[in-house]
Design brief:
It is built from nine helices and twelve strands. By secondary structure, the protein is α/β, with parallel strands linked by helices. It folds into two domains: 128 residues, ATPase, nucleotide binding domain (Nucleotidyltransferase, domain 5); 154 residues, Nucleotidyltransferase, domain 5 (2-Layer Sandwich). The strands form three sheets. Strands 3-2-1-4-7 form a five-stranded mixed sheet. The chain has a five-stranded mixed sheet with strand order 10-9-8-11-12, with helices on both faces. A two-stranded antiparallel ribbon has the order 5-6. β1 and β2 form a beta hairpin. The radius of gyration is 19 Å and the shape is globular. The two termini are 13 Å apart.
């Protein structure tokens, strides 16, 4: 899925928005980040994203003399790709349900915009260029501020009905007496395993501080508990999908090999023997995977 021209790309999450231009050589240029400030509501967030995009475009034109004619967006939430409307979003993006994100960005940037779920974009990038390359069927679990999933089957991204596939953060772990999560549900995987939950329960100031301590050998019960729950949840999903591999991405990657081993141990303990050899691997493309995937989606959908 080659890129024929540079693409303005965005990765919109519950905590931050990243932007840049992905060149045909798959290099991210003029990368910028801003805080999402999701509590301000989708209109204000969209306006800031447009301003960020215009800043990136100006800088890229100054650097290369090249113009950009299209944009790709990886956004948290369930996305209607045909309309660019956010069909569903969790509490991390309040007020986003029904918001015409694609329309707002296209109008503000004055160019066509292709938009897809952020974890779908991560999975697509890993399938084409990253840790998913050896596998025809895999699950990507993005563990960060929230938890989401991307499913690749027979080498193709599976989006499901209305783009709603991969919502692994809503898998029930404790339906009775569990922690509250989205839309009056309780006991969802996300509220046990997200790095934001680990930070809150561990008392560290940030995921980076927590990860630095954990990788240096500190005993952090919140991380070990989250790894246990994630292994259990992924075991349940593996019994349905039987993937060739499970990739773990997001800020959880900062927790390193010790964390991955803890998740794998829990996974093995809760799966049938036929699934215990499924490898759990970290993603390879890092913080730019959403941006790369957004460009691939734009190339696929817009074809300019």
């Amino acid at each position: 899925m080659p890129l024929r021209e540079p693409t303005l790309v965005f990765d919109i999450g519950g905590t931050k928005v990243a932007a840049g231009v992905l060149t045909p050589e798959l290099s991210v240029r003029q990368r910028r980040e801003i805080a999402t400030q999701a509590a301000d509501g989708p209109e204000r967030v969209a306006a800031r994203i447009v301003a960020l995009g215009r800043e990136v475009l100006t800088a890229f034109a100054g650097e290369t003399g090249s113009q950009v004619r299209r944009a790709g967006v990886a956004s948290a939430g369930q996305i209607d790709r045909a309309t660019g409307v956010v069909r569903y979003a969790t509490f991390h993006l309040p007020g986003w349900i029904g918001f015409p994100l694609g329309e707002r960005l296209s109008a503000g940037l004055e160019m066509p915009v292709a938009i897809d779920n952020d974890v779908n974009c991560h999975a697509l990038a890993e399938a084409v260029l990253g840790a998913g390359q050896p596998f025809r069927c895999f699950l990507l679990a993005a563990v960060g501020t929230g938890v989401g999933g991307g499913v690749v089957i027979d080498g193709k991204l599976y989006r499901g009905r209305r783009g709603g596939a991969g919502e692994i953060g809503q898998v029930m772990l404790e339906p009775t007496g569990g922690r509250p999560c989205s839309d009056r549900l309780t006991g969802c995987l996300e509220v046990y395993t997200a790095t934001s939950v680990m930070v809150q329960r561990s008392g560290y100031a940030s995921v980076q501080a927590m990860a630095a301590a954990y990788t240096a050998g500190a005993a952090i019960p919140a991380v070990e508990e989250a790894a246990l729950w994630l292994g259990r949840g992924l075991a349940s999903i593996a019994h349905v999908l039987a993937p060739e591999a499970i990739l773990i991405g997001g800020s959880a990657v900062l927790l390193g090999a010790r964390y991955l081993a803890a998740v794998q141990q829990s996974f093995v303990a809760h799966t049938l023997p036929s699934h215990r050899e499924i490898p759990l691997l970290f993603t390879q493309l890092g913080a730019d995977s959403g941006l790369i995937g957004a460009a691939l989606v734009a190339s696929e959908e817009l074809g300019l």
